[in-house]
Amino acid sequence: MRTLVPAEQLEGAAQQQYGQMLEQARSQRVLAPDNHPQLQRLRAIARRLIPFAAPWNSRSRSWQWEVNLIGSSQVNAFCMPGGKICFYTGILDKLRLDDDEAAMVMGHEMAHALREHARERLAKTQATSLGLSLGARLLGLGELGNVAADLGTQLLALKYSRDDETEADLVGLELAARGAYAPPASVSLWRKMMTANGSGGPGFLSTHPSGPNRIQELQDNLPKVQRLYEQARG
Ligand SMILES: [Zn+2]
Description:
Low-confidence stretches: 132-145
Radius of gyration: 18 Å
Number of domains: 1
Bound molecules: zinc ion
Helix content: 55-70%
Strand order of the largest sheet: 1-3-2
Mean pLDDT: 87
Structural class: mainly alpha
Strand content: 5-15%
Largest sheet: 3 strands, mixed
Shape: globular
Number of helices: 10
């Protein structure tokens, strides 16, 4: 399924979509400027995680990673294919994330991109839309829009599977630990996320569905990454 959407095509579509999103945020005056303290904090975190990304996806060596912050009450963050990261101020403010917890969010989002979860999800959707456009052509209706442009808009509405979530949790935990961020923050992050759910809006949890064992699973994995964390600290 994955081969239906070439990585290059998806990364190109993501870059285009990300650029449009930033442009829109800029015109609405909600795009954080480079000297915004919260944005600087996020970029510092990214600089500590990115060096450990390549073992999870060799293509990522050539990604142009970017981190941006948008003023919005939404509790959300994402990393598009190709390493385009965005946080909304809502996730930092409403969950009162410390650096370790913010690193866990970023690691989780980076893991989705590195493990190409979007590509897998989209391959299934695209099989459907290719079928649609083929059907339309047969009926003489012409192409139903540009598939590549569609990909970009679909990226933001993707809902991951619980298996994707588990992988993103564990890969993200390891990335953060190697970047010298405290592993127990993964547990406190998800506790906060669960508590905020309902009051903080469904944003993050609706696209990142939690299984019943998410926190337990993270807790069970803390000992495995503790040494990586200590080595990184040392
Ligand atoms: Zn997720």
